[in-house]
Amino acid sequence: MTTDEVNASGGASTGPTAAMLTPPTRWHPPGRLALLRVIRDDLRANSCHGLSGLMKPAAHAFIVYRYGQWILAHRGGGRGWWLGEKLYWLLFSAVRNRSGIELVATAKVGRGVRIEHQHGIVIHPFAVIGDGVQIHHGVTIGLKDENELAGIQESVPRIGARVVIAVGATIIGAVSIGDDARVGPHAVVTRDVPPGATVVAAPSRILRLTAGADDG
């Protein structure tokens, strides 16, 4: 099937159906073994092999994210849970400040998600991201405006499996990005994207030439 190329902000939307958008793989946080397995998948996706790989900011972000999910699954578990939650927020703040990756434990992120480069990555606390997604630096995934706060969990992006989100892309509002789609650099996506489609930003154009610039 030929990949369709559409503009990020224009054109008709075909709106992926539920069958076209694979939800992230579910796992069971209460099991410690399941927690370690999903962290292993995260580290492999981000090429974190050996002790040197554990120094990568993406590794820190995913380890803290999964730990936060595990803590949320044990909410109300007494004083130990309270201390664990405090530790999570301390680690989250440290990782966010160091790496520029804002990934809160309440977001639903599948296995094998790869962050190519850190810094400037903001993922809404209720966003849904499928398995095998690639995220580059400068990406924002969030609300379209503050008026959506009333139905916040229905107003955030839902991203399917194996989607590639390029540098500086912005995905906002209650949009669905179908499986295997590609979001081009600096695209602003406010409408649904069909599976396998490529979304591009408007091409750059010259507004003004300085005197003598076209003389060769």
Structure in words:
- The protein is an alpha/beta fold and 216 residues long.
- It is 26% helix and 17% strand.
- The chain contains 4 helices and 15 strands.
- A 6-stranded parallel sheet has the order 1-15-13-10-7-4, with no helix packed on it. A 5-stranded parallel sheet has the order 2-5-8-11-14. Strands 3-6-9-12 form a 4-stranded parallel sheet, with no helix packed on it.
- The radius of gyration is 19 Å and the shape is globular.
- The N and C termini lie far apart (44 Å).
- Mean pLDDT is 81; it is low at 10-19.
Q: Looking across the biggest beta sheet, what order are the strands in?
A: 1-15-13-10-7-4
**Would you list the SSEs in sequence order as H and E?**
EHHHHEEEEEEEEEEEEEE
Low-confidence stretches: 10-19
- Main beta sheet: 6 strands, parallel
Number of discrete helical segments: 4
Shape: globular
Q: How large is the radius of gyration?
A: 19 Å
Percent of residues in helices comes to 25-40%
Q: Gap between N and C termini, in Å? A: 44 Å
Detail the topology: elements first, then pairings.
Layout: E1 5-7, H1 32-45, H2 50-53, H3 57-73, H4 79-99, E2 101-103, E3 108-109, E4 114-115, E5 121-123, E6 128-129, E7 134-135, E8 140-142, E9 158-159, E10 164-165, E11 170-172, E12 176-177, E13 182-183, E14 188-189, E15 198-200
Parallel strand pairs: 1-15, 2-5, 3-6, 4-7, 5-8, 6-9, 7-10, 8-11, 9-12, 10-13, 11-14, 13-15
Helix pairs in contact: 1-3, 3-4
